Amino acid sequence: MISYKQLKQDKGFTLIEVLLVLSLVSLLATFPVVHFTQIKKETETQLFFESLRSSITLIQSEAIVNHHWTKMEVRPTNRLIRFRVTGADNTKHPANHILYLPESISLVGTTKDYSFSSGSGNLGNINVIYFNTIHGRVSVSFQMGSGRFVIE
Asked: For a FRET experiment, which of 44, 46, 126, 130 has its CA 20 to 30 Å from that of 35?
């Protein structure tokens, strides 16, 4: 049996020791959260640009194959890019969709519309779209008269 004298000799931990251990544990616990947040932003950025590439290709293909005028509308204030097939009978077309920007990406500039011509998929106007990302500025540029584009 433990006597009162033995209990009195066990002093336990001091307040400073407890605070030191708690601060070290909390510091070590924050590293995975910081790392996870960075990975999440990088993944969102990669997925967004893959979706953008697919969406532009889809809308151009619709213009070429089905001879519809198509449009890509860039809306920086709304943080979105809208893809649609023009014409009154195409309001519910399956190629119509909206691509929203993730929090880690912002559009630079003003509202722009890009029209892909029926049959060829070429653009009527050429402008560069700029995005600010966690890795710097990314541009989407279209080649004059061909409808080809480059994301860099």
From this structure: 130
